[in-house]
Amino acid sequence: MGFAMQCSTYAYSICVPRRLTPTLSFQAYKWNGFKTQSKNQMRLLCAAGDNQSSNLLASQRKRRKVVEHICLLNAKEDLSEEEENDMLDYLYTTQYQMGGIIAISLGRISAQNGDQYTHAVYMRFQRKENLEKFYENSFYLKVLKDHVMTYCHELMNVDYESEVDDDMLSIFRKGEEFGHGVEFVLLLSFNAGALDNQVEHALASLATVMLESPSLIVQFTQGLNFNPSSKEYTHGVVIRFRSVEAFEIFIRSQEYKNVWISKFQPVVQKSLSLHFLVDPVGTEIM
């Protein structure tokens, strides 16, 4: 059995519930640094207990399959603000011209990356059939021709199947928690010689760290890339952070760094990480 087929079941997604009390996750406590050791230890234990409860509840929830679509754009250097708005506006309106798109976010990438991508578009589809129709839709093809590739050098698409909690807010990414924040995209290419259990364990370890951060993360998905045009990356991950501060706390946390160094670096051939701010207006599905 080939590597792609062996890894096809490694998909995780959780909509992380916000706690009713204004407590922080394990990572946030660790970064804040309390003055007294006894209070710090007590709060860490409470946070760990809350995380265990969240993990147990998450494992008992009903799940719904979804298809995640990531499009990365490399815009031309002389792109004006007017042209940028035109491009993003037309991409955003594609959700109104066809069925199957149930969530969308897009924006300018906040920091430079090795592949020089400047903008990112994230979409969620109900099924693979909806995604296939999307790629063939005449309105979308015209948008690409007249309002995207006119302003861009190139684009790359990554698609993967995952699961989310079977409720309307989680599936459609609706509600106050999805109205703002930071969209983080991580693309991975695992070594061809990596053992199946190493890949599975790396993804599961990342999922565990994210589950332990409900005060930082609203939802995350990850899965095997099935788009034949971008096989340089085998897997995709999308994480919605609650805020810029939440994103920075997580990325700088020792837990995330440890997982990356110990689980991913030995088996990852190539990776690309980027993020963009989510506009409160640009995330509502009408």
From TrEMBL:
Gene3D superfamilies: 3.30.70.100. Pfam families: Dabb. InterPro entries: Dabb, Dimeric_a/b-barrel, HS1/DABB1-like. Residues 67-160, 182-276 form the Stress-response A/B barrel domain. Homodimer. This is Stress-response A/B barrel domain-containing protein.
